[in-house]
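[recover] target loaded
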């Protein structure tokens, strides 16, 4: 018999407007999953005329045989519209991608790799939300 996800409620009036209660869903972990090693963003090396030999080991898929967790994520309309616009542009170029794939890619490759980076991002986000609203036109 499979184990079901655990749902716990978290009250966080700072992160959620109007003191709402947020539900966090955690999947049962039957076996430990390998953690992604922290990767720092690097500036691309200048392209040279000759190809460089590759000595790195081939990487494996850390998400192989995993099911995605269906998580209710609430986004501000301009962020959702930006995702939609990017997906449409990619589709026009012949690359079929959906918003879920794009969000997963952003979180995997560009998301924080540790608590310090996450703290910095959350603080920047909260500072942005604390700014006064733009004047009405």
């Amino acid at each position: 018999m499979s184990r079901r996800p655990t749902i716990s409620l978290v009250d966080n009036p700072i992160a959620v407007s109007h003191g709402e209660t947020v539900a966090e869903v955690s999947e049962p972990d039957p076996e430990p999953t390998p953690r992604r090693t922290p990767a720092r963003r690097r500036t691309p090396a200048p392209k040279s005329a000759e190809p460089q030999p590759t000595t790195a080991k081939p990487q494996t898929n850390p998400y192989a045989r995993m099911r995605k967790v269906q998580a209710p994520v609430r986004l501000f309309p301009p962020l959702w519209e930006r995702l939609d616009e990017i997906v449409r542009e990619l589709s026009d170029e012949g690359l079929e991608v959906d918003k879920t794939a794009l969000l997963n890619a952003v979180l995997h490759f560009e998301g924080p790799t540790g608590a310090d980076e996450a703290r910095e991002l959350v603080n920047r986000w909260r500072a942005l939300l604390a700014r006064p609203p733009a004047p009405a036109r």
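[recover] notes: Confidence is low (pLDDT under 50) at residues 10-22.
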